[in-house]
Amino acid sequence: MQGTLRGWMGLRTEDIRKLWRMLPIFYFSGIAESLNYTAFMALFNQRFGVQYLPYIYIFEAAIMPLEGWLLAKLASRLPKARMMTTLYLIMIGLLAVNGAVLLGFKAGGVDFRFYYPILFISSNFVIRQLTLLLWSTAFDLCPTQQAKRLMPTFIASTTTGGITAGLLASLLGRWLGTEAVYALAPVLMVAGFLFFRKAIARYLVPLTLKEEGRLQAGASSASELEESSGYYLKNILQSPFLLCAVALMTLMPAIYFMMEYQYFTAAEARFPREGDLTSFYGLITAIQFSVCLLLQTVSTRLMNWLGASNILLGIGIIFLGGFTLTALFMNESMGLPVVSGSYAMFYILLYYIAEPCYQLFFKMMPMSKRDGYRYFAQGVAASGGILIGSLLSLLHSSGLVALSPLAWVGVVVGGVLVIVAWFGRHLYIKELVKSVQGLHADLSEVASSFIGGMRSSKALSGMLGYLKHPNDYVRELALEVIGQAKDSAFLPHLISMIAEESSRIRIAVLRAMNLQGATIQDLVQVASFLEDEDPDVRAECVKLISRAAHLKSQSHFFIRVKLLDNHPKVVHEVVKALHALESEESYQACDEAIIKMLDSGGEWAVYGCHTVADLKLTQYAAWVLSLLDEQRPAVKVAAAHCIGKLQYIEALPQLLEIVPMADQELKRVILGALVDMGDKALPGLFANMQQENPYRWNVVVTALAELLDEGRLRTVLIDGCVERLQASSKERALPGALRALGLDALADLAKERCQELHEALIGGAWAVMAKLVDERIVQTLREAIQDESEEIRENGLEVLAEGLGDRRLAYALLDQLKQGTSAGGETTQEPHLLVQEAEGWSDSWLREIAMHARSERERGDMREDRKFLTMLDKVIFLKQVSLFADLSVDELGLIAGIATEEIHEDLTYLVRRGEPNSAMYLIIEGHVELSNATGQGETATIGVLGPKQAVGETTALDGSPSAVTAQVIFDEVRVLTLQGESLSRLVRLYPEIGIGLLHASSARVRLLENMLLTMS
Predict the structure, then answer these.
(1) Rounded to an integer, what distance in angstroms lies between the CA atom of residue 513 and that of residue 620?
(2) I need a surface site. Which of 116, 168, 281, 833 has the fewest CB within 10 A?
């Protein structure tokens, strides 16, 4: 049952764990909030007078800025976790004090009329802040994607709490009185706080280890926000779109508060007894939240279908209709049911539907100013909405108009709201186009969310006007929004864009097309894209035509011809399309195409692997496995990915075998492949749990952590992880042994390699820990433990020492981390014997270092006779080059693998000024002169480079012309040569290399500047 529920809701193991801790918070707080609201409203309306409600709201609107300022001050002085618990305790205290006063009034038979405005203000503060605290807790404790998955469940828990509160209020109000209803609220808040405190300690405290620095940054940001309030006001006043957004955000709460006044006034007139009134409020609350719970089941689907713009327009129409019904029936017998139903619906629509829609208005704002616009607009709208609603309600409370005429005023305001919502849809499109440059990737999704999927939408049809816009970004966005509508009515407009010059636009045109209902003539026109010069366009056209199921034979005819295309991406899409069309007569030709791709190597083999993976063609699994021996890294990566998708378990040993020498990308893909194999891989992974090599062990336990549920993870995996972490190892003693033998360079390299192996071991343990706690928490904790500040490091270790996730694993990990900060392992074993033993260790680099150390001792003084460098010699040399000083031994090995040793004679030009250069030279021995031409046509020396310096690093990556000339001087020079194409891939995988090149380029620029200053 639980598994079925998890599958239906799309929940994961970490979601279930977090739900058990957080759902009680939302449930108990939902009950407390509704009990509080029901009770204090009944008490205020009965004992002070509902006619004074507008005055209280006006007073609240006036003090809300002060309230926000005080809370901001509190937040600036306290860490986030403490701020949240302090605010929760303040709210419990306010409710407890009020409850005690009310029970004291009842027990003593006394009353103090002017206490109830204080009760109203303090209780309404709890309503506002508790709602904000609950949603901020959900987003702070959950990563963004997890929050999206869990938010419906949190809302359902809160609404269930509201239903429970309604039933409790209905019963308790009638039998025990309204005071008992109110006094129950702080009791339930305390119950929620027990879970709240544990959730904060478990999920938020580890994320706020650097809170002090953030507090200072927050204070700076707050001062900037204060100074720039005039900036936001000015820009809002100048923007019709933002004015429309603020108007919507103001009018909706204004109408709600007017309806709330109608509801409370009508209910008080019908139920003069306080207990009956409280019971009625409770009944309406229960019905209200029951409807809300039902609405949540379809709200997401409704939002995707209608879009936020139509949702807001629909809410405006419902508000207008609700007030129209209220105005018509207020003086009739159906008046109270109509006004109660309208109030309940207004509440749900405003707080649970409209609020999320508002956020889309600010998605077009620049990221750096988005929050400023949002907070400023929400502050203005909240105060403005309360003031407008309260001032209009004063017309009745002051005796100027009756309730029914006041309802007609609400009808007028509702009409204004509908007009504003209607124009807002069109202003949104214009603002979208203005904001498109630089934000296209985000805005296309936001546009569809706001406009929705209604094919008849006038706003969507308005996008056609932008298909001729001179800006390619605007046209691409319009095409993407049109494509998301999946409306074949746009096909003629899109076919007319076949001749577009930009290949990006042609691809966007194809993606926007819907061939459902297309004629043969339409298909022929679309098929002209199959001869496009750009292979990406041809591939996109193949995908589109394959979806024309009603013209299957014609589609098959056009697509099959492209099996002979000269680009592998097109052939890849053709094979997939023919299989999607179930063209069995073409399967043999498809097999021949796949064999050709796999056999051709290089890019063809990469797409061949993708084809086999996408179509799950298990008959090619053995062939794909053989591609793991390819020299080109991209082919290895594609083959490993394909093996995982095919769930080819026989490849598991070979995948693990290549892990230690794999680069980052290949390691990541191998891990993904093991996870893709699913439960089939479990026996093989368990069999490799005792891997001596830390890199293989890391991949094995990380894959197991992904595949096992939490129960099996705790019972099966934890013990193995703890044993592996606690196992003694002699690796850390090797650097000391090498240093004792006088091999300092090898000792430094061995020390770094031991640290990398240690980190790989710890990384596997962290991966398991992340599945027991939360990936964000583990990431933050790892960063804190490596922080420069000793205090932050100690705080991180302290969190771990409290038994985070699993106490046994946390303690074992803590011991390893403390070892990592120590000087290193020591041994009483004689250095020569330890080095000899290291030649049989599991790590290839430590074995290589040990064998190199032995050969060094055996060669003695004959070392100078050796001319060319071994692989390890290259690694040792690269470690001493400033460009690569911060790289790991594995990364240095990858560079050494693409580096070729060359000798150039005296006066040889390595690089000439103005000529393209695609290689970087690292000087091993010798000197190179850098020179440049002066303004008088003479040659001036910039400088002379020696060993461990680089030449050509500024142009190697892009093959651009060199700005300087580099010539060998003072006899021959020995260099390591790195070709730009191979170096570019390493820079993509290891940004540290790129940073080193950037530093080298900066140093070269400073040399040129100094030369120019000297010449001047």
Answers:
(1) 34
(2) 833
Could you tell me the two tokens for 205?
Answer: 């405290």
Strands 919-933, 950-951: parallel, antiparallel or unpaired by DSSP? Answer: antiparallel
Prediction pTM value: 0.73
Task: Answer whether 48's CB lies under 8 Å from 116's CB.
Answer: yes
- CATH 1.20.1250.20 matches 239-439: yes
Q: What are the angstrom distances between the C-alpha of 337 and each of 258, 263, 285?
A: 17, 9, 13
Higher pLDDT, 7 or 267: 267
Phi, psi of 956 (to 5 degrees): -65, -35
Using DSSP, state whether 911 is helix, strand or coil. Answer: strand
Q: Where are the beta strands (DSSP E) in 351-444?
A: none
Ranges of beta strands (E only) in 523-564 are: none
Cα 1000 to Cα 614: distance, rounded to the nearest angstrom? 43
> Is 68:125 a contact under the CB 8 Å cutoff?
no
Query: Per residue in 74-91, is it b (16+ CB within 10 Å) or e — as a string?
Result: ebeebbbbebbbebbeeb
Q: Say which residue, 864 or 703, is predicted with more confidence.
A: 703
Smallest Cα–Cα separation from 511: which of 499, 526, 524?
Answer: 526
Question: What integer pLDDT is reported at residue 776 of this predicted model?
Answer: 78
Could you give the residue range(s) of every CATH 1.20.1250.20 domain in the chain? Answer: 10-210, 239-439
Length of the chain: 1016
Q: Which residues pair with 950 in a beta bridge?
A: 922
> What's the CA gap between 165 and 184, in Å, rounded?
10
Q: What is the pLDDT of residue 97?
A: 96
Cα gap 347→344, rounded to integer Å: 5
978 beta partners? 899, 920
pLDDT tens digits for 605-636? 999 999 999 999 999 999 999 998 887 888 99
Dihedral angle of Cα 341, 347, 349, 354, to the nearest 10 degrees = 160
At 979, is the secondary structure helix, strand, or coil? strand
Q: Encoding tokens for residue 820?
A: 């990592």
Residue listed under structure tokens 């600010």: 362
Q: Which residues pair with 940 in a beta bridge?
A: 932
Residue 221 contacts by C-beta under 8 Å, 6 or more apart in sequence?
A: none
Helix (H, G, I), strand (E, B) or coil at 516: coil
CATH code of the region 10-210: 1.20.1250.20
What is the Cα–Cα distance from 765 to 721, expressed in whole angstroms?
7
How would you classify the pairing of strands 965-979 and 899-904?
antiparallel
Domain 866-1015: homologous superfamily in CATH? Jelly Rolls (2.60.120.10)
Check if the beta carbon of residue 598 is closer than 8 Å to that of residue 642: no
Residue 947's region, left for phi above 0, alpha for psi from -120 to 50, else beta, is: beta
The encoded tokens of residue 319 equal: 């508000």
Contact 762, 813 (CB under 8 A): yes
Q: Are 266 and 339 in contact (CB under 8 A)?
A: yes
Residue 494 has pLDDT above 90, yes or no: no
Of the listed ranges 127-136, 227-236, 272-281, the least confidently predicted one is: 227-236
Angle between helices 568-580 and 587-600 (to 10 degrees): 150
Greatest CA separation for the chain: 112
Quick one: the chain helix, strand, coil %, rounded to 5?
80, 5, 15
422 Cβ neighbours under 8 A, 6+ residues apart: 313
Contact 627, 635 (CB under 8 A): yes
Q: Which residue spans of the chain are classified as CATH 2.60.120.10?
A: 866-1015
Q: What is the pLDDT of residues 205-246, one digit of tens each?
A: 777 766 544 444 444 444 444 445 677 778 778 888 888 888
3-state DSSP of 180-241:
HHHHHHHHHHHHHHHHHHHHHHHHHHHHHCCHHHHHHHHHHHHHHHHHCHHHHHHHHHHCHH
Q: CB-based burial of residue 190 (10 Å sphere; 0-12 exposed, 13-18 middle, 19+ buried)?
A: middle
